[in-house]
Amino acid sequence: MTSPINILVVDDIQQNLVAVEALLARPGVALLKASSGAEALELLLVHEVALALIDVQMPNMDGFELAELIRGSERTRSIPLIFLTAAPREASYSFRGYEAGAVDFLYKPIDAKALASKVNVFVELFQQKKQMAQQLEELKRALRLNELFTAVLGHDLRTPLSVVMNGAMLLPMMTDHPKVGVTAQRIQSSARRMAQMVDQLLDLARVRSGELQLRCAGQDLEQMCRTVAEEFQAGDKSQRVVVEVEGDTQAHVDGGLLSQVISSLIANALQHGDPGHAVLLRIDGRVPENVVLTVSNRGIIPHARQAALFDPFQHGSEAHKPGQGIGLGLYTACAFVKAHGGRIDAAADEALGTTVFTVQLPRRAAEAWAA
What we know:
About 50% of the residues lie in helices and about 20% in strands. It has 11 helices and 12 strands. The strands form 3 sheets. A 5-stranded parallel β-sheet has the order 2-1-3-4-5, with helices on both faces. Strands 7-9-10-12-11 form a 5-stranded mixed β-sheet. Strand 4 (about 80-85), helix 4 and strand 5 (about 100-105) form a beta-alpha-beta unit.
């Protein structure tokens, strides 16, 4: 059974409390009656309230003073307040009430239908708020469970995957048959691609759980970029990556995370760009505070996909092709760049038929991340 929705009624005259209770009482709604401001505050310490009906003229603590105390507490600040008063209609009086946090004024004698209608609105709003809070909590639990599942899956896949990779390396040593060597290379290639997917799943879990930590040290970005570019070209000579450098390329960054960023951008450019043109990786270190990396290729990002380019599980084409990744490369790259205090942008020039990814990094990433 769901608990009833509480409405607080504050009035120093007992007959008024009885009248309001008779008007508003119904199943699912409970009226909390207080004859003074102090008694009302005691009730608010114990109960969650959807609405408070407060009489203005009360001894010791009037309705305005009670409203200010309610607004001053973090726990009760969001409670809607409706003032009930027998005072004449004066602008200054109403202004003081609204300044104290009232959402409405009702003048005595109270219109029963108007009061019931207003109370019903706030009861429904309170119900919707509780439902949304419950749904949000359920979504958070589901997200935490999903992140835990992703992290456990990625961790447990590493052990059998390493066995597969080691076995593929040993196969050519056991026989000279040419088909065995070709098969071993295919197994190694597929295992490496799967290892990258596992790493991306673990990165996704770290980003979503907020456990991403930077391990910054002095790095030469030119050397880092050339090393990553050579790794792509070592496996396939047709994958040309040209590195251009200008200015100072030294920066205090997390080398492991930044290498993944560069690798993801190059892999994306090679996969979706024109294979007849090289990918250009440019390092601009002319500005003392920042280093700018740009990766450009011949190829256009569909306009419909540009807005969600850095969202997880996105692909460059409508259909998922065999051998294609799981769509986390650009998402994790964006998260790693932001963790460094930098930003990443993508722009497409349809006239030239090119796409450019731009990464701006502060030279002291650890300080930017801490800030």
